[in-house]
Amino acid sequence: MFNEQSFDAPVMHVVSESPRLEMLQARLRQVGIRPVPVRGKYLPPDSAPALIDLLTRELEIANTDKRLVVSLGREHHTLERSDIHLTDISQLASLPARIAIRQREQQRRREIKLRAETLSKFGVSAPNPQTTQRQRLLWLGNDAPFLNALKSNLKDAHINLVAAISRLTAEDYLESGRFKTLVLCPAKPDDEAAKLLARIKHLPLVQTPQVILLARPKVAPQMAKEHLSQADQILDVGDDIDAVAHRLLALCTEPSLKTENVFALNSAAQDSATGLMSREYLESHLQAQMEQADQLATPLSIISIDLKDGEDLKAVARSIKGLLRDTDLAARLDAKHICVTLPDTQYRGAVVLARRIEEALERSVNWRVIERRQFHTLKTLLGGLTARSGLSTKRSA
Questions:
Q1: Are residues 136 and 162 in contact, defined by beta-carbon separation less than 8 angstroms?
Q2: Other CB atoms within 10 Å distance of the CB of residue 371
């Protein structure tokens, strides 16, 4: 009784009527979501996602409402706005992963916009992101008829879908760097495609590919949600192969969300010794990140990494950047420290990254992590990263 932790689960507002309301609430609890029924015509004024059951109720969502909206029901629904659409109740099993994927997308877009705004303060205009045509897709799955149908659909768009015969072959292909998109179609929750999905983010790749998961109704609910969330996109596999091919084509030709493709740097924004962002850029951008974190009520953590005299600073910077997400920012804090900002990241997540950086540098590293609190100012936050204490001195010894 006292070990019940459901109050820690993320909240989701549910717009439905009995008896489906009770059934949906039970299904959501099973996947680790705390449902809150919406009785009236308006959603509570907070940022929690909303699930709208189109079979029993519809609810108009204002365009100014920033929350994620999930619709459940008819394929061709009349809801004006829906971020995630589920056609079947069985898809609720993958809902936490789908939400995590969409939240990552939103965070990337916010960070791209924020960095462009910061750069404009240095007198540099950010160019529009260029559409990137990914001509070669790597496929791993056991459904040959479905693969052949997809290849035929994509051929007209000059996109080559290459099939790997095994997980190890697929990993070799990815290490070559020739494929920027990986399409996985598991036929079982533990087959080769599912295993590659589980380990894709941990492979020693120069560039992690965009991962598109083709989810089967009977397979996806049996897969671990932490594995499902490794995908960058989840497409439901139905009878309409043309629709799947059309969505694949759109994903392979949409503008890249990689932040380094969004802006060019100038001398005031870049540190020449490391190739990272400068202290001036860091201060301006971190202030904007703090204001955004307050507005969205999201966490913000920062890491400082000590540098050693005489080491190759550009090599250290490359090692650190290779471990970062699109939304993480590395900058030169001062002569002896590199700083990494991690929006929408709690203290524990920042510690995990700090330890990975230490492993990548293959030496003992004195690092410090701070999760920003309301009382922090820009000065106290950055000052806390380099302040000496008995604990930090002992750690570096």
A1: yes
A2: 18
Count of alpha carbons within 13 Å of 272, Cβ hemisphere only? Answer: 3
Query: Rounded to whole angstroms, how far apart are CA atoms 171 and 174?
Result: 5
* Nearest-angstrom CA–CA distance, 139 and 162: 6
**Residue 213: is it exposed, middle or buried by C-beta count within 10 angstroms (0-12/13-18/19+)?**
buried
* Residues 345-384 pLDDT 10s: 999 999 999 999 999 998 888 999 999 998 999 999 999 9
Going by the DSSP 8-state scheme, the letter that residue 308 receives in this structure is: P
Read off the tokens for 315. Answer: 């090599």
**DSSP character for 254?**
S
Taking CB atoms within 8 Å and a gap of at least 24, the contacts of 339-342 are 339/282, 339/302, 339/303, 339/304, 339/305, 339/382, 339/385, 340/302, 340/303, 340/305, 341/282, 341/285, 341/286, 341/289, 341/300, 341/301, 341/302, 342/300, 342/301, 342/302, 342/303
User: What whole-number distance in Å separates Cα of residue 350 and Cα of residue 12?
Assistant: 26
pTM score, two decimals? 0.73
Query: Who contacts 171 (Cβ-Cβ below 8 Å, separation ≥6)?
Result: 196, 203
